[in-house]
Amino acid sequence: MSFTLDDFDYNLPEELIAQKPATPRDHSRLLVYNRETGEITDDYFYNIGDYLPPDTSLVVNNSKVEKCRLLFNDGKVEIFVTRAVNNRVVEAMVRPGKKFRSGKTVDLTDELSAKTISIADDGIRTIELSHPLDHPVVTPYKHTPFPPYIERDESLSERYQTVYAKDSGSKAAPTAGLHFTPELLEKLAAQGIRKNEVTLHVGLGTFAPVKADRIEDHIMHSEWYQISQQQADALNKTKRVTAVGTTSVRVLESAPKEEGSFIPCSGETDIFITPGYTFKSVDHLITNFHLPKSTLLMLIAAFTGFDEMKKIYQHAIQQNYRFYSFGDAMLIL
Fold first, then answer.
1. pLDDT greater than 70 at residue 17
2. Best exposed site among 84, 195, 215, 229 by fewest CB in 10 Å?
3. Phi, psi of 154 (to 5 degrees)
4. Is 5-65+154-332 a CATH 3.40.50.1100 domain?
């Protein structure tokens, strides 16, 4: 069956877009969907251990969010670094575009300037900064890349990181992991449900909007991922895999296998999972509630079934679940 972009649209009351996370982290709500029975259960995230099978392991994305959003002139000028070519040359989304014309140098502050070297077809600029990214004159202008639907509040920057975040590189948080506390992870480990880590640095591939009307015409940006030898060994010992978030799914479904076993690997993935996809490595999924028309929502529809995704989201809206990055969670069994 062929799907159009409008098939993944839905109306969400604005008041259901979470502006702040639950406190403590694991006090967010939890919608549990059983794919075998079609049953929906409403609970809280701290009870997730009551639903996870005892022979599963949690596969989390340990990537850390970078302060990659550079804001100047009270936020009127923005350089959103999507990739650092080196310490002074970056690829970036910019605002306003007319300031960043090819060959032009812009004074961002009294001490810092930026020269636009080139402009790609999708508007991404290659920019050379007058000072390195880690220079003290740049540091005050670095901000957490909160999504546009969340009001900017640097006091929440730590809450936009998972408790197990390690390697910087993400331009957005792997949000399904935001619900875990160290205490909850210890409690789950005591049940025999252990945490295994992989890495995918979240970039444009995850949050770039889909513009193609036919979803199969959408081209994903690639994102870097890695599974170490130790991580591959741990994954191969688990009977069932519960992926924590869509980014973990993308790693697990992209990673090469030898004779059915994970091997250490790293590389770029542009995997685009849509309804009809056959999952090879993921048995269960923990995820947040995603934006309409997003590639993330399409992945969820692939995992649950398209009609089932619609049913789950309708239930979540009726029950006033909180949506998006700081919102509530869903466990799909």
1. yes
2. 229
3. -65, -20
4. no
